[in-house]
Amino acid sequence: MRYAQLVIGPAGSGKSTYCSAMVQHGVDSKRNIEVINLDPAAEYFDYQPLVDIRELIHVQDTMEDEELHFGPNGGLIFCIEYLLENSDWLRDRMGEHEDDYILFDCPGQIELYTHLTAMKKLVKQLQDWNFSICSVFLVDVQFMTDGAKFLSGTMAALSVMVNLELPHVNLLSKMDLLSKTARKRLDRFLEPDAHSILGDVELAGNFHFNKKYRKLSESIGHLIEDYSLVRFIPLNLKNEENISDILLTIDNIIQYGEDGDVRTKDFEEKDEEDDN
Ligand SMILES: Nc1nc2c(ncn2[C@@H]2O[C@H](COP(=O)(O)OP(=O)(O)OP(=O)(O)O)[C@@H](O)[C@H]2O)c(=O)[nH]1
Ligand SMILES: [Mg+2]
After folding, report:
1. Residue 45 CA, ligand 1 centroid: distance in Å
2. Burial class of residue 97 in the structure, from the number of CB atoms within 10 Å of its CB (0-12 exposed, 13-18 middle, 19+ buried)
3. Where are the domains of the chain?
4. Is 177's C-beta closer than 6 angstroms to any atom of ligand 1?
5. 254-268 pLDDT tens trace
6. For residues 211-228, b (16+ Cβ closer than 10 Å) or e, as one string?
7. What is the pTM (predicted TM-score) of this model?
8. How confident is the model at residue 15 (pLDDT cuts 50, 70, 90)?
9. ipTM over 0.95
10. For the chain, which end, N or C, has fewer CB atoms within 10 Å of the first or last residue's CB respectively?
11. Coiled coil: which residue ranges (predicted)?
C-alpha cells in the first residue's frame, strides 16, 4: 500500500506552507514524507519536491503558445489535463516504494475541486497505483470568523467533499494570525451545536430579504449539523503537538501504519476458534 494526502484549498490558503511543515515534522520524527508539486504556476515553495509538474508543463507555456493562447485559469486546467494524458511521466518520476507517503501540493483554483473532473481523474489514477488517499482542504481561518463567511466556507468544503468522494479533512489554516476576540467568535462556530448560530448573520438593507436570508442560513446550518456533514480542525503550524495530532488523524483515515500481518493473524485466530 502507498499513502497520499491531496492538499487542496483556495489560493493562498497555505497549502505549500502546510506541505513544508509536514515534511519538517517528518524529518523531526524520523519519517519519510515527500511532496509532489502539482501547481504548474507555482512560483515559490520551500520544500524539495520529489516531482515537479513544471518540469513537464508550465502554465506560461499554455499562455504563450500561438494556438492555445489560454489565460491563467484555462491554462492551469489544460496543464492538469496534460498531466493526466502523460501519467506515465508522473509514474516514472515518482518511482514506487513500499509505504510511500506523498503529499500532493495542488493549485489554488477552487473550481478544480468543486465541479471539474480533472482532479477526480487524477485521484482515480492514484488509486489505480495503489494509493490510499485523504483530501486535506485548507481554508484560511481569517475568512471564517463571521457567520456568513463561515457558512460560505462550509458550503465550499461540502462541494469539494461531494465532488471528490474521498475521505476528507478540513483544516483552518493560519490560526497563529487570529486575534483573541476573533478566536472567541470562531469557537462559537466550532462548538458541536453551533451551526444554528449561522443564522445569526448581520446584514444591512432590505428587512424582508434579511429575514428570509437568515432563515435560509439557519436551515442550512441545521442540515449540516444534523447530518454531521462538515467539521473543521484548527491548524497552527507554530504548535508541534497540533501538527502531530493532525497527521495522526489523517494517518488513521488512510490506515497508514496499520500492520497488515497483524490483521491477517486476527482473522486466522478467529477461524481456529470457529473450528473448535
Ligand atoms: N502566519 C502564517 N502565515 C501563513 C501560514 N500558512 C501560510 N502562510 C502565509 O500565507 C501565504 C500563502 O501561503 P502558501 O503556502 O504559499 O499558500 P498556497 O495555498 O500554497 O498558495 P497558492 O499555491 O498560491 O494557492 C504565504 O505568505 C505564507 O507565508 C500560517 O500558518 N501562518
Ligand atoms: Mg502553493
Report:
1. 9
2. exposed
3. 2-266
4. yes
5. 999 876 544 444 555
6. eebbeebbebbeebbeee
7. 0.89
8. very high
9. yes
10. C
11. none
**Alpha carbons 40 and 60: distance in angstroms, whole number:** 8
Q: In residues, how long is the chain?
A: 276
Instruction: Measure the CA–CA gap between 231 and 208, rounded to whole angstroms.
Output: 31
Using the atom order of ligand 1, give the atom closest to the CA of residue 11.
25
- How many whole angstroms separate alpha carbon 119 and alpha carbon 29? 31
**pLDDT at res. 185:** 85
Q: What is the DSSP string of 175-187?
A: GGG--HHHHHHHH
Contact 12, 140 (CB under 8 A): yes
Closest Cα partner for 166 from 134, 118, 119? 134
* CATH 3.40.50.2000, applies to 2-266: no
**Mutation pick for ligand 1 pocket among 6, 16, 178, 240 (CB with most ligand atoms within 8 Å):** 16
Q: How does pLDDT run across 201-241, given as a tens digit for each residue?
A: 555 556 677 778 778 878 888 887 777 788 999 999 999 99
DSSP state of 174: -
List strand residue ranges (DSSP E) for the chain, in order: 2-8, 34-37, 51-52, 101-105, 131-140, 168-173, 232-234
pLDDT of residue 245: 97
Three cell numbers written together for 12: 493562498
User: What's the gap in Å between 37 CA and the centre of ligand 1?
Assistant: 15
Measured CA to CA in angstroms, residue 64 lies from 38, 58, 87 at distances of 20, 10, 24
